[in-house]
Amino acid sequence: MTRSLYVAGTGSFAAEIAEWAADAAAEIYGLIELQQPQRVGSVVHGMPVVGREAPPPEGRAVLGLGGDRQASWRQLEEAGWLAGGVVHPTAHIARSARVAPSATVGPQAVVGAEAEIGEHAILSRGALVGHHTQIGSFATLNPGANVGGNSRVGVGAFLGMGCVVVNGISVGAGATVAAGAVTIRDVPAEVRVQGVPAQSYSPG
Ligand SMILES: CC(C)(COP(=O)(O)OP(=O)(O)OC[C@H]1O[C@@H](n2cnc3c(N)ncnc32)[C@H](O)[C@@H]1OP(=O)(O)O)[C@@H](O)C(=O)NCCC(=O)NCCS
Fold first, then answer.
1. What is the H or E stretch that residue 117 is in?
2. Which domain holds residue 98?
3. Percentage of the chain with pLDDT > 90?
């Protein structure tokens, strides 16, 4: 958990991450604008907005935006930002679990025994990660996503609100599991699934 940091993004997601960090007694120095340079110098959600160029010495950033989070992090890293992370005080993390320092773990999220949470992954409000489950870097578990034990969620995968990934399942890198889906079979990389039981589909 980083004690003083900037949140990358200026949208509602960034406001939410800033709240979690404040609850965890972190000091938020400001928001980093990645898309709309005209916002730099303004105040958004009560926080000053800075550009990504010329980070302050030892400036640490946590991703507070959706979309291509890997690309956003690359931009920050190239500009010299260091990675920060947030763990909400109401999260429950098993002592044997390993949470990367740049991961974000939200309110009432639960991480089971021997689970691994990768760099820049986000477990949103009430997300559940079962024992011995691996969550890849940059993966997003939206509120209430429930991943059973002994499962794997690949790099950059997106799990919608309230979905279920039953135990022992592999969700590939960059895959999308729609909100409310129940995934009972492996999901290949980059594939999108929805429904109960989850089936692959093509976006409209
Ligand atoms: C999966 C998701 C991203 C859909 O985006 P998409 O891939 O662009 O899909 P589309 O919106 O084009 O919809 C494609 C089809 O899937 C259906 N669909 C979309 N989401 C669905 C869902 N969660 N469950 C079942 N069907 C769904 C649509 O009705 C549409 O069906 P149609 O072709 O018969 O009309 C979105 O529905 C979702 O689940 N988002 C997660 C939201 C979330 O967790 N937000 C976090 C807020 S804090």
1. strand 116-117
2. 88-194
3. 91
**Unique residue bearing structure tokens 């926080």:** 47
Pocket around ligand 1 at a 6 A CB cut-off: 142-143, 160-161, 176, 178-180, 192, 194-195, 201, 203-204
Average pLDDT over residues 21-34: 93
At residue 1, the pLDDT reads 66
Residues 100 and 74 in one domain: no
CATH of the domain at 174: 2.160.10.10
Residue 76 and residue 92 share a domain: no
- State which of 194, 201, 202 you would mutate to test the pocket of ligand 1, scoring each by most atoms of that ligand within 8 A of its C-beta: 194
**The domain boundary residue, chosen from 86, 101, 135:** 86
Q: Encode pLDDT of 120-152 as tens digits.
A: 999 999 999 999 999 999 999 999 999 999 999
Provide the 10 A C-beta neighbour count for residue 51. Answer: 14
What does the DSSP 8-state code read for residue 115? -
* 118 and 80 in a common domain: no
